[in-house]
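User: Please run a holo structure prediction.
Assistant: Happy to. Please share the sequence and the ligand.
User: Here you go; the ligand is adenosine-5'-triphosphate.
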Amino acid sequence: MAESVELPTRLAILPFRNKVLLPGAIIRIRCTSPSSVKLVEQELWQKEEKGLIGILPVRDALEIKSAGTTTTTASQVVAKMKMSNGDSDNGGSQAAVVEGQVKVYGVKCGARRGWLMAMVEDVVGTDILDQSSKLQDGSSDSLKSDTKKQNDIVHWHNRGVAARPLHLSRGVEKPSGRVTYTVVLEGLCRFSVLELSTRGIYHTARISSLEMTKTEMEQIEQDRDYLMLSRQFKATAMELISLLELKQKTGGRTKVLLDNVPVHKLADIFVASFEISFEEQLSMLDSVGPKVRLSKATELVDRHLQSIRVAEKITQKVEGQLSKSQKEFLLRQQMRAIKEELGDNDDDEDDLVALERKMKSAGMPPNVWKHAHRELRRLKKMQPQQPGYNSSRVYLDLLADLPWQKASEEIELDLRAAQKRLDSDHYGLVKVKQRIIEYLAVRKLKPDARGPVLCFVGPPGVGKTSLASSIAAALGRKFIRISLGGVKDEADIRGHRRTYVGSMPGRLIDGLKRVAVCNPVMLLDEVDKTGSDARGDPASALLEVLDPEQNKTFNDHYLNVPFDLSKVIFVATANRMQPIPPPLLDRMEVIELPGYTPEEKLQIAMKHLIPRVLLQHGLSSAFIQIPEAMVKLIIQRYTREAGVRNLERNLAALARAAAVRVVEQEQVVPLNKGMKGISTPLLENRLADGTEVEMDLMPISVNSQDIANTFSVASLLVVDETMLEKVLGPPRFDDSEAAERVASPGVSVGLVWTAFGGEVQFVEATEMVGKGELHLTGQLGDVIKESAQIALTWVRARATDLRLDAAKGFNLLEGRDVHIHFPAGAVPKDGPSAGVTLVTSLVSLFTQKSVRSDTAMTGEMTLRGLVLPVGGVKDKILAAHRYGIKRVILPERNLKDLVEVPSSVLANLEILLAKRMEDVLEHAFDGGCPWRQHSKL
Ligand SMILES: Nc1ncnc2c1ncn2[C@@H]1O[C@H](COP(=O)(O)OP(=O)(O)OP(=O)(O)O)[C@@H](O)[C@H]1O
């Protein structure tokens, strides 16, 4: 940068339209107008030693008007302008000189300080400005080529900047041959115009420098105000430079300027690089005094700094968004390309469109639709990779899949047809079927009747599930089974809130989604198996489901919108009633299905199970015959259940074995013709092992009946005892079991009730040296343990009362421990009905007399020996029947329960009633109660 320069008294003047060149700035100007071309040619191009030229800002009349200046025009005069130096106002002084060719029509110093106005004519040509990022840009000529612009008034500023040419180049425009110049100028120092005149077609001015002398400068540098201002300026400038360097990641070159260039010059350099208004540029030009200039520059630099910071913030925001959306765009493009490559064209957008369409057709109620639509809008704004996208998508899918209105059309209910259907599906169960028909009849009369929920209670395999599905078939509705066995978490019924990771809807909503209609028959299977723990009480959630008042707006936590369950027909099943919470039981109508008698089982097997099993295995009665006698044997020897599930399983095992035989017969024929390699038929091998044949030979998608027909050449297989043993193995049960087990004293046979229905339970007691303690084993609950304690107490007390001792055949067991065991330890046992059995086994132990093996008993006993009635009598008697028991001892007050027991069973049993424990003992032992002679009966 040039140091202080000696200015000539006169300078050629290049007008700078609406722009200011400040000292220290560099501009490039392309001169095209005749006047400026002439000026450059004469003052710079043709001169050996390039001199200085003056750059004087000019302003259009319009601009000055808007800036609040009053203007006047004069008749054609050559203007000579005399302007005062310094910062003082020149308003009002006029000067007009005629020199050269430029005609100035009117001249008047503007009301605004430092401006001269002139009407200029004969202006041609335009200077085209070259712009460069490094160079300050501007127009070298105030005069435009348009003839329109002729006679425009231009306003010359009274201060300008002397400039030194740094580079000069000449060009010739091709078509016109016009000469143009491009000149790069560096602003050096301010000057004031004393007199403006013309030389040829361009202007010159008599000037005086506005630069301070060295002495003046030294003086001012001592000034405290100046020092403070310069420090302030430098700090602000430093801040700006640091910010810019940080932004542009440039080195510290600009900082060097701060140390080497005098601060008053720096002020100009800094301001020159800003894009500020013409007014502000002029004001900077007019700031001749260093203090004024510094404070002005500090203000401008600070403003620039702030604006950069604000811009920075905005840019960061915009960039953030931009880069994100660009990233998204890129990813989408890539995804599309991958999908195209894979031939999978349904991209996410299409996917969402399809989802929306599905949602629209789901028939959601308005409030649900509003909720779903809001969620969809949210989803649309998300990216597939975004967390939450998938869960939102799955959630909306569920909303769209749920049958909000879709219902299976209920067929006109024909009670006779329903009865026929129930009869064809199930043998017996007359009362149950009757109750179902009543239920259906009410529904026919009042379809929206809020009848009670039917609950089938009974042991496994008695047809609870199949009855429910028959109801659905009779009503022409879809059937769905919801298994509640082992459900301990309320969320299983109500779903998890969506805030949980891996949240899901509850089983009910999930079931409805699967069944896809809002009015199915829904079987709540095993309602007695729900438990409650810290995770809530599923039964209480079920209360809401089964309550017709509440289930209109069932609230699943996952779904988060109410779902109307009132059209669903609920049917429940349970093995036992006791575990069902009373409020829940209260909402249901319990229909008990006790176990089947062997005769009933036989009928069920012959009429329902065998035809169904054969069909399932692609067989028919042409291949296999299972005679009644064999079914009886299966019932007696292989199953001792209350229901028919095991019976069905055993029949299926026979059918599989027959299927293998049929297929092998078919294969054996051709093989035998040509080959001898295959020796033992597969069936023989398998049957010899006594294992069930587990092969599934049915080809998928081939109708099993077709296969049966294909193999119709095979010979008929009649199941006999040998085959039973081969396929099902040796018999699992036989009637001699009880006799064998009670042969030794201390064992008695009880009848109990478990989840599997009635069961025969043996009780074993033994004694050993000890301290008179009682030991109990075999998965016992508190009640049964108490019964054992009561039994022992009663027996000991009784023996003492009757003064029975070893001599009279009663061991009082002084100093000995008693151990009572309930075999089948894996099955939990509880309840008071084992009371009489426990006493009997203890009496048997103490008297060393065996209990009758054909006798089983049940009954609760008080401490005083009174026998109380018990529950589940029908099931217990059926169990005794199954086990081949011939005599059953029952509490007297259970007599009424015998009405329910099928007469076929009663015909085979001797029922003995007991009021007191002594009665039981009387019946349990051969020869009656072991101490009858002492008893006060
Ligand atoms: N009275 C009957 N007549 C014809 N088939 C029957 C009868 N009772 C049960 N079945 C058959 O026995 C099989 C088992 O019945 P189902 O599954 O309905 O028993 P469930 O009582 O529901 O058992 P769980 O309590 O284990 O669910 C079915 O194939 C069913 O058709």
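The longest helix spans residues 290-342.
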